Amino acid sequence: MKPAVELRGITKRFPGVVANKNIELSVAAGHVHAIVGENGAGKSTLMKILYGMLRPDEGEIRVNGEKVTFHSPADAIAAGIGMVHQHFMLADNLTVLENVILGSEPRRMFGIDFAAARRRIKEISETYGLGVDPDALVEDIGVGERQRVEILKVLYRGARILILDEPTAVLVPQEVEELFRNLRSLVEQGLTIIFISHKLDEVLSVADAITVIRRGETVANVSPKEVTARRLAELMVGSELPSPQTGESTVTDEVALEVSGLSMVKDGRPLLSGIDLRIRKGEVVGIAGVEGNGQAELVEAIMGMRPIDSGTIRLLGEDITHWPTLRRRERGIAYIPEDRHRHGLLLDAPLWENRILGHQTRRPNVKGFWIDRAGARRDTQRIVERYDVRTPGIDVAASALSGGNQQKLIVGREMSGDPVVLIAAHPTRGVDVGAQAAIWDHLREARANGLAVLLISADLDELIGLSDTLKVILRGRLVAEFDPSRVTPDELGSAMTGAQEVA
């Protein structure tokens, strides 16, 4: 049988860098083919070439044995290729249905046939267990459901070859297993899946074949039956797998952040109910929960980004409940946002301007009433060196950096200025094992230096490894507390889905 996709000698150059160099890739039809590599290794560029977003400088693409030339994603879609991006391509002000059919609207005599679209969306959602409500407004749904909407959008367009970029980044173990069952179902029906992930254990469990890319070149094609996660990591980055484990306790008696009776209601529906939370200096409190159960609302309440209906928030004993976000930032609350592109960076701005974001009233970014360009530039250079942000310079746009390096820049910025509390929402989402290890090291170091950390993560191993205390949020309530040294990911996952509620 002819391969579903062949890439032969693909080379792509950008000013000053060769992103892909003579890449060879053959994806068998009806298989899950994983592509692994560090951020910046060239995976995203390669997938953008396959999806018609970029044109290769050299090489050719074959789909089902036929040579093709893609000038745009529309050409790739017409050839049966769909891509689910790591950073979602959805319009917040539209419903799920409107997002799914956008550009592929079913027509009837006097306009769009919404009834037919709704039937088709429900059929796809039920067939593959996606659990998507076509009438929900996208701005009201969580990250996990947004990802499922993206998958549904691709299937709606009739894709037979799916490119999935970090599809499990927001899922708990039970949901990952369900997704993998869905992928197997797709494959059994003849679809082909290209699966990009940094979670090597997942790659080994779901893939039929694995291609490793390093520094823009294909370095290995391996069978998951013949390779270990440790060996894959060595192929990717030249080092063994990092571990999120922390050492001895650094927890003090001084409470840095205290949340009492926090409640939030929207349209008569409780988003948060009676949240009580204390984080002491030198302590990491981890919050586990399925996406959409109140984690984002809790973070935004603490940051002053959303109003609360009742309760108090205290920072070092001082009531900050009604303070604006900037004042909370100035008093020492640092914030690594869940979505770095929406809330963490100005992608078109240079790195030194991104250093100023959220810190625009404090040194070294200002002198008096004026922005201190020289001071901001010097400190950006310090962050680049201290946090190993791999970049040609501080004047390049943030969009030019790989995801892992963007995240390291944000971590470096938020660790600057001696914060008292760090709100870390999915700090290693979508980064490779090298960047992940670096971010874990910085969190461990900050904890040892007395920082109080609220850690929100979908990576249960990360939560268990880094946290001193673990709490589970379900339907806007804290329903369980675990000792991280004794809990397993499966026990945590059960509590997160309500199958097991532990007081």
Automatic annotation (TrEMBL):
InterPro entries in the record: AAA+_ATPase, ABC_carbohydrate_import_ATPase, ABC_transporter-like_ATP-bd, ABC_transporter-like_CS, P-loop_NTPase
Main location group: membrane
Membrane topology of this protein: Peripheral membrane protein
Record bears the keyword Ubl conjugation: no
Name the UniProt record assigns to this protein: Nucleoside ABC transporter ATP-binding protein
Domain ABC transporter: 5-240, 257-500
Signal peptide location: none
Gene Ontology CC entries for this record: plasma membrane
UniProt-listed SMART domains: AAA (SM00382)
GO molecular function (one): ATP binding
CDD domains reported for this sequence: ABC_Carb_Monos_I, ABC_Carb_Monos_II
Compartments (UniProt record): Cell membrane
Superkingdom assignment: Bacteria
Alphabetical UniProt keywords: ATP-binding, Cell membrane, Membrane, Nucleotide-binding, Repeat, Translocase, Transport
